């Protein structure tokens, strides 16, 4: 009887240990971020800090909104994001506040966060996922990877699938339409546009357009009015900083030699729908595509 009892206890112990080890192995997470670094977590993240508004929004899309314990200014979508504790702005954040929140994952933005700040956080031992999606399809992959890191894979995969389906629909509808030479203006002073590796250039291509400054390598290069006049775009599209059409978009009306001005092809797309690398990017892209369709409809009139 004693031996039987001992054998049962031993089997039970082995089963518990085996189950524990299997559970830990299952919980371990490993993904590659946008700059090629492998991010490894012993288990899905429970306390996440987002260092960019677009990352906050994408985490919510991936089903991980409840795990975000800190984020930066302008993280305003969805509504629940407004209630999350702030750790500063995306270009300057408070390291002490971040440390006090004890994150088990930090998601950063390569072109928005200072490299020195990210290096400091890495030096403090925090796992860091770095985001830099430069193509629209990268957004779907990012949703999936963040879902893996947060343990919300089912929600993330559903959101990624819906994104890819809508992207395929827009691509099929607009990508083969007649080309429209397009100047996209981010800001007036300095006069800023987008280079070939900026995700908005990808949106213009999807719409059958051509970014007149696509040969520039920088993500957000500064150009001159003279360069825009020389490029002679058929459409000028601006975003600005808020939901309203920027007043400076109409400043182009004085340059009557530009084809876009002659045909009144001056358009606005809300910045939160086109300048954030999130699922809502497809809403902004569809608006952009409709603007370029308007341009095509005005040809020859």
| Helix-strand pattern | HEEEHEEEHEHEHHEHEHEHEHH
CATH H-level superfamily of the largest domain: Nitrogenase molybdenum iron protein domain
Tally the beta strands. Answer: 12
Indicate the percent of residues in helices: 40-55%
The structural domain count equals: 2
Outline the low-pLDDT stretches: 1-25
**Mean pLDDT metric:** 90
Structural class: alpha/beta
Beta content: 5-15%
Note down, in words, how this protein is organized.
Residues 1-25 have low confidence and may be disordered. The radius of gyration is 24 Å and the shape is elongated. With 301 residues, it is of the alpha/beta class. β11, α9 (259-262) and β12 form a beta-alpha-beta unit. α5 packs antiparallel against α6 and α7 packs across α11. The strands form four sheets. Strands 4-3-7-8 form a four-stranded parallel beta sheet, sandwiched between helices. Strands 10-9-11-12 form a four-stranded parallel beta sheet. The protein has helices spanning 2-27, 53-61, 95-100, 115-123, 136-150, 153-174, 199-206, 225-231, 259-262, 271-274, 281-297; strands spanning 29-32, 38-41, 48-50, 68-70, 88-89, 92-93, 105-109, 128-131, 180-185, 209-211, 235-238, 266-268. This is Cobalamin-binding protein. InterPro entries: ABC_Transporter_SBP, ABC_transptr_periplasmic_BD, Vit_B12_bind_prot. It comes from Candidatus Proximibacter danicus.
